[in-house]
Structures are given as structure tokens and as C-alpha cells.
């Protein structure tokens, strides 16, 4: 309201310069946000276009009778996979922007992190078994005040990556530790690792290391962006250590009690 007053009547104000600085900062922030929003829309459009082009192309050649009877099932499978990719992309995009806007339709509750980790592992068991990756939980009951769907999503994305970017017979372990005021959750894998120059960038929206390799694995490049936003939302911290060929370790700490905002 002070800023608005400044615009309305700048000359009569004694601390006009101070007012102008506040206005400038608001303007810069607005411009930056606008720029991010534009970049994000451009990225989303590009990411949506690729699977849509495939779906449309496959459907067209089937319609034109260019696919042999015995191959139709295979093509339907490809259309299905591309459509699933689109669904995930749209869902992820909604999640990122909700967190970005500070929207939170969920409740803060006192919960046991171990229960959430166990549940996530249960949901990922089948994917892990398919790749022959072993999941371990280290630690026990660890209570904290948190938002269930957000913490769940963060842990899920990290474990999912740990499995996806792993090798045959690899492991993903989740460690829970009570640090007194904080709770530490660490997700460690002995998979392919992330090159040094990419480590800070993987948290950006749509950023994927080695596009061709990542493409074969599948994903939207939004998983770690959701993790970063989620951890920030929950008032936590995040640290990544990774080495090519050795694996990746992501350590998060969350305050046990919700800090007053
Ligand atoms: P997605 O998995 O959908 O591509 P993410 O945002 O989760 O998107 O990850 C971004 C990129 O970071 C991935 O494409 C992958 O190249 C790399 N990455 C993420 N987690 C790991 C991991 N645990 N090990 C190796 N590489 C990883």
C-alpha cells in the first residue's frame, strides 16, 4: 500500500527515494517471474509437441492402411505410451506450478516418515524387480510435522530415479535419521551417476542428462524440479553428491516442527 501511495502522490512524501527502491525491486521480481513463466510455457509447448506428433503420425499411417495387420498392436502400444507420457507431463506441470505459486490444498500433520518411505517402496517394488534393483530402508519410526502428499512425492521421485538410472543388480537405500530438531532423509543409489557439470542443472525444469540415453529410460525432466520445490515448500534443505559410474546420494533435512511463516 505504501508503494501504491508513492505512485499516487510521490512528491508529497518525505521518503520518496526509499519508496522508489521498493517499487524497483517489485518490478525486477515481476519481470523475472514473467520471464520464467514465458520460458516455462515455451518448454511445455515443445515437450507437448513431440509426443503429440508421434501419436498423430502413428494414427495417420494406421488410418492410411500402411501398417500390416500383425503390427497394429505394436503401433497401438506406441500410441498408448506416448499418450501416457503426455498425461504424466501434464500432471507434473500442474504439480510444479502449484508448488511454485505456494498453493497448498493439503494439511500439515504429524506423521511417521518411515511409514511414507515404506509405502513408496511398496509402490515401486514392481518397477525395481523388473530391473533387478534392490530397495532397502535403514532406520525406524521418525516423526515430523509435514504435508503428506508433498513428502511422499519427493521421496517417490528420488527413489524412482534411483531405480531408473541404475544398473542390473543395483541398490537404492533410503536412510532415516533423527537429528534432534531435524529429520534427515537420504536416498542413495549405486547407479550411473550424474556428471559434475550437470549436477546443478538437473533440478531445472525439463533438464535431462544425455538426452538420448535419458529418452530411452523415459521421464519428463520434471521429477527433480518437483523435489526441489517440494523440499523448499516443506522448509527443508537438499544436497546432492554424485559420481559417474558410482552412484548418487541426495540428502534432505526437514525441521520436525513446522516453522512459523
Ligand atoms: P526425469 O527422470 O523425468 O528425466 P528428473 O528431473 O527426475 O527427470 O531428472 C533429471 C535428469 O537427472 C534425468 O534425466 C537424469 O539424467 C538425471 N538423474 C536424476 N536422478 C538420477 C540418478 N539417481 N542417477 C543418475 N542420473 C539421475
TrEMBL record:
Cellular localization per UniProt:
Membrane
Q: Residues in domain Histidine kinase?
A: 43-258
Any idea what this protein is called? histidine kinase
Q: Which organism is it from?
A: Blautia obeum
Organism classification: Bacteria, Bacillati, Bacillota, Clostridia, Lachnospirales
Write the span of the intact protein that is present.
296 to 556 of 556
